Amino acid sequence: MRPRMIRTGKPYNQNWAVSLKRVFVGLLLAASAFATTIPRSFFGMHDVGVDLGKMAPFPLLVHYGSYRFWDTPVQWQTVHICNSNPANCLSDPVANTGLGDTSVMDLVLANLYSDGITDKVMYSNGRVPGWAQGSAAHPGQNCIYGANSCILPDQMNADGSCSGSAGGNGGLCTVVDTWYQLVATYVNRPSYLTNHAHIKYWDPWNEANVDPAINSGFGEVNEEVNATWAQLLRLTEDMRCIIKGSGTIHNYPTAGNSAPCSTYLAAYGWSAIDPTALITNPSISYPSGDTSILYNFLYCNDSPKQDLVTSTSCTWSKGLNWGGEAVDAINVHAYWTTDQPETMRLNIATIESTLMAREQAKPFVSGEGSGGDPNPPGIWTDNYSRAGGIVRERALLWSQGVSAAWYYSYNGLWGIIADGALQMEGIAWNTAYSWLNGFTPSNNPMCSNNGTVYTCPGTLANGQLAQLTWDSQFGPGGTTAPANCMTDAQNPIICGTTQYAVPSAYSGNWISADGVEHPYASVITIGAVPVLLEQAPTGLNPIAVTNAASFVAGVIVPGELATIFGANLTSASGITSATTLPLPNSLSDVAVKVHGMPAPLSAVINVNGQQQINFQVPWEVSNLSTATVEVITGGILSSSMLVPVVPVQPGIFSYAVGTQIFGAILHLDYQLADSSDPVTAGEFMIIYCTGLGQVASHPADGSAGDGQTTLALPTVSIGGIPATVSFSGIPSNSVGVYQLNVQVPHGVPSGNQPVVVTVGRSSSPPVLIPVH
Questions:
Q1: Quick one: pLDDT at residue 549?
Q2: pLDDT over 80 (residue 526)
Q3: Which residues lie closer than 8 Å to 31 by C-beta, 6 or more apart?
Q4: How confident is the model at residue 54 (pLDDT cuts 50, 70, 90)?
Q5: Contact status, residue 180 vs residue 235, Cβ threshold 8 Å
Q6: Which of 72, 221, 592, 724 is most buried, by the most CB atoms less than 10 A from its CB?
Q7: Spatial separation of the C-alpha atoms in residues 753 and 770, rounded to whole Å
Q8: DSSP, residue by residue, 679-713
Q9: The whole model's pTM is what?
């Protein structure tokens, strides 16, 4: 029998239209490892673009919950401009410098906010502007970003003191301080934060270990910075003081002295900008970097290099710990370019174990990291190996107590997209996100190992038990062939041959890193690319996903109202409708996930043995070609339905009179156009439908529309005759329901005539309208 949309309310008044719209490692571990639920913000992404034209467009093709600014045109070098001659800007930057082009920063932060990322953005500082660059401190030095971009302004002395002045007060680092004050004030304006993401983390300098002044491991080539220990401390303390309004400024007003932040701010006449910000240490790349750089910045306790030729400016040893006092979070760049992610985890454990208790209690973040350069000496040379490495990295970072980690990178250098399409690494990233976002580990630390077999058990966001499993003996850095996963002709998405006995708790289907679901087996093959084992579902059985208006099955459309039919979808009887907007993500202990994203629900129905769920398809699936649809009832997850995603599939809401299907079409007075009150030629009527696709500035998932028009204007025929469409969009108080205002053409015969809505090549099934 053709399924009907079950509706409530009286069909002959305006309230009916409103009702219709609403119904529609046993390894070295630190004590900081987490057993808490993994938040969305853990999944940081990093876009690479030297100019706006080379940055990837939003929305990104991957799921993520935080973002980092670096290698984008928002750096100090690009945005802090001199409005006079360089001499004036250097002597009085407060009066003579300002912000230049902030359009990229504005664009990114606005798009992040629209994507639901309102906080947890990281900004990494670096790259001195040309007008502010100091003289070459070392002949032959080679700054990686050109000219003297790694040389601090001359007013910053090697001993950490500064020679700038403002308002008659000396000893100030006026060039860098003015930059901090300008950019932090700009992005923290209250009006700006109403529709732009908040920068939470501030990194005083990117990869400060690439500095020959303090690190013997780097010669004067491709330097990030050429700064002494004391200068790095001053960069950090000044950032903390100017942005947060707290801390101490050492070597102020002269070398060997110090003053509280309040005194320093008073010299400028400034106030704190954002006390909630988190200042990190100048980031350290590791394992390629020397860990002593971090320890010496924090504590000066690991034989710091004599950066002053015969002495060292690192003078805060023996319990002074000035660097540790200046930071709120520990920031390393955790790469696994020449090792396995499991080795990266051990490296982080080593770092954590040598931190003092105060720093161990602070957030530990990885501001940048990935498998790095796929070219030698990098060992992660193929997409399948890197895909497996990404999933392992995500699980192991959280297991080792890393609270946020930004992947390098989304596009460009070592990107997980190419030519605007997801690579295997990007698919694996999205799979890892769907597994781990909202995942609650069963153990602390989350992951453990028996030899080379790793297991990470816990509970998925939907309440279902699950376990990540892999065997690190295979793939890059392993001891057993295949040496890389691309050469595993049998199954590169598994990349190994270990026969693994599935624990009895996971008697459901299992999922590979490409998101494909596989039938349960008591023994499965595992390898270098992780798989997810799942608890078996109950009798919960979704059968079909359809357009909620036409009930055409087989595809979904972003933003549309869709319907799931099946068995045991709910234990509740009758009709449970959402009564508030935005629509909730659960009703009667029922929820729906579309490709791991919660779907807003308008109704859960169990009438006369017919069960259905009406839900809105999240707008975010527009970047996908297929999406999984799952039902969660009472905490139990159904099997997944893999459904194609298409841009449009029109369907007109309807009702049945005997065997005839009539459209939910109203006169302009909101009275139903039926056989007792038919439409006439020349009048305008209202057609309610769904599946018309994208609109201009779509509302958030579950939120009501406000007259947004469709990007594509549909065509409508009545009795085979084209009709004029004066409006196509989402009316107020509607979610997933579109409204068409259509004029009945002259020449339409009287009687019941078919109405068809067409967008592009996709047409709705015909419904009838009585014509006078």
A1: 96
A2: yes
A3: 360
A4: low
A5: no
A6: 592
A7: 6
A8: B-TT-EEEEEEE----BTTPPPTTPPB-SEEBSS-
A9: 0.71
Task: List all residues 6 or more positions away from 311 whose beta carbon is below 8 Å from its beta carbon.
Answer: none
H/E element, 390: helix 383-399
Q: In residues, how long is the chain?
A: 772
Closest CA to 276 of 367, 204, 355, 184: 184
- Tell me the pLDDT of the chain averaged across its residues: 90
Cβ neighbours, 10 Å, residue 453: 15
Tokens in use for 525?
């093959």
pLDDT band of 472, cuts 50, 70, 90: very high
Residue 45 · residue 412 · CB < 8 Å: no
CB neighbourhood size of 259 (10 A): 17
Reduced to 3 states, what is the DSSP secondary structure of residue 132? helix
pLDDT for residue 646 is more than 70: yes
Q: Pick from 436, 569, 499: which is nearest to 63 by CA?
A: 436
H or E stretch at 297: helix 291-299
Q: What are the structure tokens assigned to 463, written together? A: 């309440």
Q: How far is CA 144 from CA 51, 223, 334, 411, in A?
A: 17, 5, 20, 20
The rounded distance, in Å, linking the Cα atoms of 572 and 587 is: 10
Q: Is-contact 320 258, C-beta < 8 A?
A: no
Single-letter amino acid, residue 251: N
User: In the structure encoding, which two tokens stand for residue 126, read together?
Assistant: 């670096």
Whole-number Å distance between alpha carbons of 60 and 45: 10
